[in-house]
Amino acid sequence: xxxxxxxxxxxxLTPSAPVITYDLGPPAGAAPGSTPLxxxxxxxxxxxxxxxxxxxxxxxxxxxxERLQPYATQRWVMSPVRLFDDRLRxxxxxxxxxxxxxxxxxxxxKIDMLEFEQVFDSASASRGVIRVRATVFRNGLIGQKTFVVxxxxxxxxxxxxxxxxxxxxxxxxxxxxxxxxxxxxx
Length: 186
Hints:
- This protein is an alpha/beta fold.
- A hairpin with a 7-residue loop joins strand 3 and strand 4.
- Helix 2 (80-95) crosses helix 3.
- The protein starts with a helix and ends in a 5-residue tail after the last helix.
- It has helices at residues 2-13, 80-95, 158-181, and strands spanning 20-22, 40-42, 55-60, 68-76, 98-99, 108-122, 125-137, 141-152.
């Protein structure tokens, strides 16, 4: 019995794999020729409860499409909803003036994150999938649209998923802001 206790105790002393943390990298900035935006306010981005933490999620679409699971040793530095929200605010500011949310004279942009995950279509191929609903309002609804971006990952691992989700975030935000620029905001 003592031997079993020593063996089990030894398992607790083995080093675990280090946790790797990621963010979305440096902001992309406005693309040359982007339509400038008027002064806007940005509401806090919301998402489902499962995205409140800092887990990096993946789905094995080819074998268990209904199962969403987190990587064991790879994490975001903060929730992906907050990372996306920060990136969105940077992008709005780079294309116009970002004002405080209480400035009701300016139109508001509200994002609801619906999906933010790495999807494996096979054991060797994956993509970062982002699905968000954008709503623009001021004294009522101006427009609402759902955006879906599926960015192929260069590698079929967490690091590849992070790069795909970062590029996908930039693509989704650019598409959202291009759409917002077409709305009657003034």
